[in-house]
Amino acid sequence: MKFWALFSGGKDSTACVEVLSDENKLAGILSIDTGISAPDWLPFIQAQSARWNVPHEIIKTTADYDQLVCKYGFPGPGLHGLFMNYLKGRAVRQFKKRYRSEKLASGVRAYESTRRFKKTREWGEFEGVAVWAPLFNWTTEAVWRFVNERGFKRSPAYEVLCISGDCLCGAYATEMERAAIKAFYPCVDERLKRLETLTNKLWGWGNNKGKRSGAPVCVDCEAQGELAL
C-alpha cells in the first residue's frame, strides 16, 4: 500500500516523506496552501520535494483567510478547528476528488505534546480520507536525529518562528511569534495589522489574553486533535 504524504516542510512531515520513500510506500506528496503562509514557504517546499522524484500536488484552499477573520475574528484555540477545516480541510476535499482511492500519511506523533498524546491515533480520517501516522511512536529526539542525518534543511520560517510557516493563522501563536513576523516578514505583519484595524481584534496571542494553558512557545499549528496536516 502506498500513501500521499502531507508535507509542510517541518521536521515531522519531512521525516514522514522520507520514511515512506525508504519503504517504497510513497505515492506522492501533498502540500496545502492555506493562503496565510510565510512568503518563503512555497519556494522552500518546492525545492525540498524535488529530491523524492514523485508527484507533488500543491492545493490551495478555496477559503479566504481575510474574509474568515472579518466574519469570525482571529482564531484562538477555540476557533482552531473551524479555521483548520476552512484552510486545510477544503484542500483535502479537493485532493479526494482528484485521487478518490488514495490514502494520506501524516507526520503527527503521540509524544509530541501532552495534547497529542491523549488524542492521537495511528490511523485517523480527515474529510473522508484515511490518514496513517507512520511516526506515531517516534520521539522528538529521534525525529531530529533522523532529519539531521539525512541532511534535510529546516524551513526558513522554522529558524525564526519555530514552525514550518505553512499556516500563520495565529490560533496557537505567542507574542514572541508576532514579534518575529514583524521582524522577518513585514508584509505579513502589515496584512495582520490591517485585519486588526478592520476587526478591532488582536491576532494570535491577544485572543488568549495572555493565557497559554501550558502550551510551549514552539507550538506547531499543524495539529487538530488527531492529525498534523
How would you characterize this protein structure?
By secondary structure, the chain is α/β, with parallel strands linked by helices. Helix 1 (11-22) crosses helix 6 and helix 8 (175-184) packs across helix 9 (186-199). It has helices at 11-22, 41-49, 65-72, 80-98, 114-119, 140-149, 156-161, 175-184, 186-199; strands spanning 3-6, 26-33, 56-60, 104-105, 123-126, 129-132, 223-224, 227-228. The strands form 2 sheets. A 6-stranded mixed β-sheet has the order 3-2-1-4-6-5. A two-stranded antiparallel ribbon has the order 7-8. The two termini are 20 Å apart. It has one domain: Rossmann fold (3-Layer(aba) Sandwich). The chain is 41% helix and 14% strand. It contains 9 helices and 8 strands. Residues 113-118 and 209-228 have low confidence and may be disordered. A hairpin with a 2-residue loop joins strand 7 (223-224) and strand 8.
From N to C, what is the helix and strand string? EHEHEHHEHEEHHHHEE
User: What is the CATH T-level topology?
Assistant: Rossmann fold
The helicity comes to 40-55%
Number of domain modules? 1
**What is the CATH superfamily?**
HUPs
* Low-pLDDT ranges: 113-118, 209-228
The name of the CATH architecture is 3-Layer(aba) Sandwich
Count every beta strand, where a strand is a DSSP E run of 2 or more residues: 8
Q: Order of strands side by side in the largest beta sheet?
A: 3-2-1-4-6-5
- Which structural category do the helix and sheet elements fall into? alpha/beta
Largest sheet: 6 strands, mixed
* Backbone shape: globular
The fraction of residues assigned to DSSP E strands is: 5-15%
CATH class placement: Alpha Beta
Mean pLDDT, nearest integer?
88
Rg from Cα: 17 Å
> If helices are DSSP runs of H or I spanning 4 or more residues, what is the number of helices?
9
Please report the distance between the alpha carbons of the first and last residues.
Answer: 20 Å
